[in-house]
Every structure is written in C-alpha cells, then in structure tokens.
C-alpha cells in the first residue's frame, strides 16, 4: 500500500473571527492558524525539553513533532505510536548490523540497502501510518549506524539516545495535542458519513431530472474524494475512540456500499429518469418514480443525525424497496424490469450505508461483519519501489566509499530517506523535485540564522523568538497542497542544519561541507526517480485496471465463495483498487472522470453475474440445461472479450423473454442479462485502457 508522507497536507475550511463585527474575518484565529500555533509550540517545547534533559541531538525532538504533526488528533496519536514502533525496530536492527560488521563499511552498506529495500516493500503492503512505520524502521538504521562506523562501541548509546529523543518529541506533541486540539468524536464521523450520503442522494436525483454533464462529473469527482477520505477518518477516529474502532469494519463496509452508489449514479439516474418519463401519468411505475424522487430529496435535505431520524429514513427506504419488488412481479417487459432493478440496487446501497450509521448511532452492536476486510496490495509497485530504494542507497554509498568524502556517510542516509519516503507519492518524480527545492532553500536560511544571528543568542527565549516565525512559515506552507513537500523539506533540514546543541559550535567550513552533501543527496534523490525504475502512472493504471477486471472475474466465477456472503467486504478491496486508479489518473482529468463511470458499469456487471449465478443455482435444471448454464456463465466471465459477453447476454435475454408468459423470476433473470449487455460497451472503455500503450496521465 501507499506510504503516508510525514506531513500530509491538511485541508481546512477556515472560519473567520470578528470582534462584534468591527473587524473583518481574520486568519489569525482560524483552523489553519491554530494548527500552525499548536505545531510550533510543540516543536519549541520539545526542543527545550531535549536541552533540559541534555539529550545528544535536541533538534531531533523538534523534527519528530514536525513529522507527526496533523490537524486530526487521532492521526497524531496513530502516527506517534507507529513512529515509536518503527524507531525501536530500526534501533535494534542498527545494533545488530553494526555488531555483525563492525570493521566492514561496504558489507554494512550492502545489508543496510537490503534492509531498506525490505522496509520499503513492507510499507507498500500496509495502509496509513503502518506503512510509514516500516519506512522509518528502514532509515533509522542509517541515522544511528552511520554515526558509529568509526567507533562501533557507541552504537547502543546512540540507539538509546535516538529512541529517547523520538519518544520525547512524541510525548510533547501528544500533550500539546490533548490540551489544545479537539478530538474527532464519534458524532463527527457520523456527520461526515451522513454528509456523503446526502451528496450521493442529491446527485442521483439531479442526474435523473437532467444535469449538465460537466457539472455532474465535477461534483461526482469531488464527492468521490470526500468518500475516499472517510476510510482515513474512521482510522484516525478509531485511534482515540474505542467505540469507533469496534464499529470500524462495519463502517468500512457501509462506506463501500456508498462508494458503489456513487460510481453507479449515472445508470441509476438514467433508470429513474426513464421510469418517470416512459410511463403514463397514472401508471404505478410513474408513481413509484415520483416516490423515489421524493425520498432522495428528503435524504439530501436531512441534516439531523439523531436515532429517530435515521430510523425513519431506513423505514422509508425499506418500504420503497418492497414497492419496487412488488412492481417487478407485475411487469412483462424485461427492459422495465432492468430499470427497476437498477433503481432497487441504488436505493439498497444507500440503505446499507444508512443502516450501519443508524445502528451505530443507536448504540447497537455492529450491523455488518466485524471482520476487518483485507487490504489490496500492489506487489508490482512495491517491488519496484523497494528495488529503487535499495539501488539508490547502494550507489550513494559506493560514491561515498570511492571519494572518501569526510561527510559522505550522509549520502546513503539522505538518498535512502528520499527514495523510501517519496515512493508512495502519487507522482514521486515531481514530489522529489519539490522536496529538493525545500532542502535547497533551507541551506540558505540555515546559514543566515546559524552564522549571522545565533552567535549573538545566549538564552532559549531569544532562540525561540528567532526561529518561531521561520518554523511557523514552514508549517503554514505545509497546509497548502502545492507547497507541502517543499515546506516539509525546508523545516526538517533547516532544523537539522542549524544543529542546535547545549554548547553551540560554529564552523562555517563544516556547515558548507554538510550543506553540499544535503544538496547533492536531494539532487540524486530527485534524479533516481527518473533513472532508476522510474514511476510510470500509465503503466500502474493499466496494472490496476487488470487487477480490477480479474477481481470481478474471480467473483463472477465463484472463485471466492466467502465474498458471495460478504459482497461489501469484497467491495472494500475493489474500492481500494479503484481509488488508487483514480489517483494514478489524476493528471488526466478527462480519462479519470470517464473511468469513474466505467468502473461503476463494471461493478454493476459483477453484481448481475453474481445474481445470475445464484438464481441458476436455485433452479431445478436437467443435465443438458445445467451444461448450457455452465457454458453461459463461463462466457459471461470472459470480460476481456467484451463482444462475446455482450452477445451471450443478449441471446440469453432473448431466449428468456421469448417464452409465452415468462415467470417473474425468469423475467428478472432476463433483465439482468439485458443490463449486462447494455453496460458492457461502457466497461469495454475501461478495458481499452488496460492495453493502450499511449495513455497519457
């Protein structure tokens, strides 16, 4: 899985503050400014505590605060825990490696490169801050061990010092967070979940009555991003709320159903529109369509989240589903049945999500499965990132060994950190350049502060007054997505290069030597993403589409019987693939917007094939009919041959509809085949990207 970068760019909605209307809205008291103030305060307190405790590297405590900084309190708690874990693992491994190779720098370097590559691979297997802990365990070895190559007997002392300074930074950050930062309560998670439900209901209704396609795609993309963030919201809220952590698997399944409703909005809206317009004014189908419109608008307008309101919504949605099922029994046209079925599935997806939230809000046990759905793992990308980090680290170490640069040991450290941390970024090549810009800026600012100002400072208060505005500017810039990595590189390396200690020493030659290594390493780090197994978003997108197709084929073939009973658990994993696909396609908005609808068509096809398989299994078939059904199901799962699937679905629909008076069960089966045939060309648009070499993303 992707690695969460140390300083994610938080998204805020600033609310101004005014004094009795006499002052305009001020940014001085806003979520952004409060976040900046908390972070800078924690950094200064951690630095002061490290000075007070006489720790060898006080700056690392402030750097730790910057790394774990996040506008969500649960995120800080989660990242702090995993940062300590990664640091401890890295410290243990550094002692082991130095103990095994005390006099052989090259052997140590080789095994460190292997260890770093292994950690980068693991980081791609985990989600959220677990992945960051794996990366941290990798490069912590270099932070500790490269300082002891000349004197290996100090490795245990340095390892303990490193753990101590990181734990100090984490503790200070946690205390400041608990005191000054509000938590993400269960109510906040519920409100965000219902806001997403309202957005989906609103968009289905608007699409059904007619909506500009450009506006529809824009709103759908924005809504997709907000629903994707719900998984992170649940993760972070669960770190500080036992109630959320208990319901987390159920919530993820509910949000998976909501995501399915989102990506299938277009077919659902079209079906609702045609049910409304193609029947007579007094038709029961028209009355049903009007009732569905009213319910969707009611959901979209519902602001309350109390148990009674959510229970009433559930009751009305269930009643609508019963009415749809009753009307299906009365139909004689497979096309109309298909439209009713599509509307039924859209409402059911919303009900699955609202049901989970209502059960949670009422204090009931988790509504859906309590088993955590397994995460999707992209092994190809993980191996490529691991090999790149390993090779880059080894080449930097060889350069240091050959040139005998006095401070060259920093090269494999810095290059390894850059290659490891940035490998999980959506556009790693661009991210490495941004990071390098921040490092270069930090050199100039650190020189001015460290050699023109700090020599005249003798008290911590003056030191804090001097560096606080600089840190605040960097932290503020980190809240802007366009400058987040520049700001992170700047703040971390600014603190590193001014090299604050209890007894300051000033050596311009040493500073310039170290600065040259830092700049050189950042340049190599940026270059390695263009030369060493460079990331290719188009290739990654094609691989993800192939994985999505195979996942759908596996479900349709019955290869994963456990997911037939837990379809939403399967949907969670597929959503992770789809979300990563959209991330890879973000630099081609046109293809990305179209892919959302294409993925929705593919999910509907998967559901229909699964329903067809279940329906056929319940029929009493002769041996010949069973053989024909098996052949038909086999052809339906050949999604890489879209024309064969479409043709087979149309033939099956025609055969079922041709009977004198088909039963409702046979008519519904015919409707499912018709749906597959109608959506297969749209799914084929997605499959075309799987083999199209010229996709530009």
Question: How would you briefly describe this protein structure?
Answer:
By secondary structure, the protein is mainly α. It is built from 26 helices and no strands.
Question: What is the topology?
Answer:
Blueprint lengths: L30 H22 L6 H10 L4 H28 L4 H19 L5 H17 L9 H26 L5 H24 L3 H28 L1 H22 L1 H13 L6 H18 L5 H24 L3 H28 L17 H25 L6 H12 L6 H26 L6 H19 L5 H15 L9 H24 L5 H21 L3 H5 L1 H18 L4 H30 L4 H14 L5 H16 L6 H28 L6
Helix pairs in contact: 1-2, 1-6, 1-17, 2-6, 2-18, 3-5, 3-6, 3-8, 4-5, 4-14, 4-15, 5-15, 7-8, 7-9, 7-10, 7-11, 7-13, 8-9, 9-13, 9-22, 9-23, 10-11, 10-13, 11-12, 12-13, 13-26, 14-15, 15-19, 16-18, 16-19, 17-18, 20-22, 20-23, 20-26, 23-26, 25-26
What does this entry look like structurally?
The chain is an all-alpha fold and 697 residues long. Helix content is 76%, strand content 0%. The longest helix is centred in the last third of the chain and has 30 residues, at 589-618. The two termini are 20 Å apart. Residues 1-27 have low confidence and may be disordered.
């Amino acid at each position: 899985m992707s690695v969460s970068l140390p300083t994610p760019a938080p998204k805020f909605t600033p609310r101004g503050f005014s004094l009795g209307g006499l002052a305009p809205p001020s940014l001085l008291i806003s979520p952004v400014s409060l976040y900046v103030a908390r972070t800078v305060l924690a950094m200064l307190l951690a630095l002061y505590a490290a000075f007070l405790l006489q720790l060898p590297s006080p700056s690392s405590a402030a750097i730790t605060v910057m790394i774990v900084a996040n506008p969500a309190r649960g995120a800080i708690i989660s990242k702090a825990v995993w940062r300590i874990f990664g640091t401890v693992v890295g410290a243990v491994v550094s002692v082991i490696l130095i103990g095994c190779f005390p006099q052989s720098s090259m052997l140590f370097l080789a095994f460190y490169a292997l260890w770093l590559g292994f950690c980068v691979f693991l980081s791609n297997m985990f989600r959220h801050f677990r992945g960051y802990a794996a990366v941290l365990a990798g490069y912590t070895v270099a932070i500790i061990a490269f300082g002891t190559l000349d004197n290996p007997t100090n490795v245990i002392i340095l390892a303990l010092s490193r753990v101590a300074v990181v734990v100090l930074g984490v503790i200070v950050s946690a205390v400041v967070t608990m005191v000054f930062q509000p938590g993400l309560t269960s109510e906040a998670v519920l409100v965000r979940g219902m806001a997403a439900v309202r957005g989906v209901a609103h968009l289905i209704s608007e699409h059904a009555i007619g909506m500009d396609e450009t506006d529809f795609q824009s709103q759908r993309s924005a809504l997709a991003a907000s629903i994707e963030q719900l998984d992170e919201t649940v993760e972070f809220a669960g770190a500080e709320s036992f109630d959320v952590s208990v319901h987390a698997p159920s919530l993820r399944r509910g949000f998976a159903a909501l995501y399915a409703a989102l990506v299938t909005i277009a077919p659902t809206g079209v079906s609702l529109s045609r049910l409304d317009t193609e029947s007579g004014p007094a038709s029961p189908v028209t009355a049903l369509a009007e009732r569905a419109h009213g319910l969707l608008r009611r959901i979209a307008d519902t602001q309350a989240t109390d148990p009674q309101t959510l229970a009433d919504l559930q009751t009305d949605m269930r009643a609508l589903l019963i009415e749809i099922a009753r009307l299906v029994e009365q139909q004689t046209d497979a096309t109309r049945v298909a439209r009713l079925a599509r509307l039924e599935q859209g409402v059911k997806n919303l009900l699955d999500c609202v049901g989970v939230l209502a059960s949670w809000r009422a204090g009931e046990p988790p509504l859906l499965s309590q088993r955590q759905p397994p995460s999707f793992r992209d092994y190809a990308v993980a191996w490529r990132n691991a090999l790149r980090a390993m090779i880059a680290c080894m080449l930097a170490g060889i350069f240091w060994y050959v040139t005998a640069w006095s401070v060259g040991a920093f090269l494999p450290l810095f290059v390894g950190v850059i290659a490891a941390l940035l490998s999980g970024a959506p556009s790693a090549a661009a991210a490495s350049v941004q990071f390098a810009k921040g490092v270069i800026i930090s050199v100039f600012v650190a020189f001015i502060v460290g050699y023109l100002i700090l020599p005249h400072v003798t008290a911590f208060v003056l030191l804090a007054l001097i560096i606080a505005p600089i840190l605040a500017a960097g932290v503020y810039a980190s809240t802007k997505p366009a400058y987040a990595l520049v700001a992170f590189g700047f703040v971390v390396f600014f603190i590193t290069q001014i090299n604050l200690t209890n007894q300051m020493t000033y050596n311009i030659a040493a500073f310039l030597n170290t600065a040259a290594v830092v700049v050189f390493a950042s340049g190599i780090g940026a270059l390695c993403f263009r030369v060493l197994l460079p990331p290719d978003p188009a290739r990654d997108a094609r691989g993800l589409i192939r994985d999505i197709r195979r996942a759908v084929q596996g479900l349709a073939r019955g290869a994963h019987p456990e997911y037939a009973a837990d379809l939403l658990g399967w949907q969670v994993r597929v959503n992770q693939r789809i979300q990563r696909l959209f991330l890879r396609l973000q630099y081609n908005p046109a293809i990305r917007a179209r892919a959302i609808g294409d993925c929705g068509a593919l999910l509907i096809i998967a559901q229909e094939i699964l329903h067809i398989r279940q329906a056929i299994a319940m029929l009493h078939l002769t041996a010949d009919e069973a053989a024909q059904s098996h052949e038909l199901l086999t052809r339906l799962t050949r999604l890489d041959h879209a024309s064969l699937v479409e043709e087979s679905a149309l033939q099956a629909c025609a055969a079922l509809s041709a009977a004198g008076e088909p039963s409702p069960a046979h008519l519904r089966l015919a409707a499912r085949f018709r749906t597959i045939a109608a959506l297969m060309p749209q799914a084929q648009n997605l499959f075309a990207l799987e083999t199209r070499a010229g996709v530009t993303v």
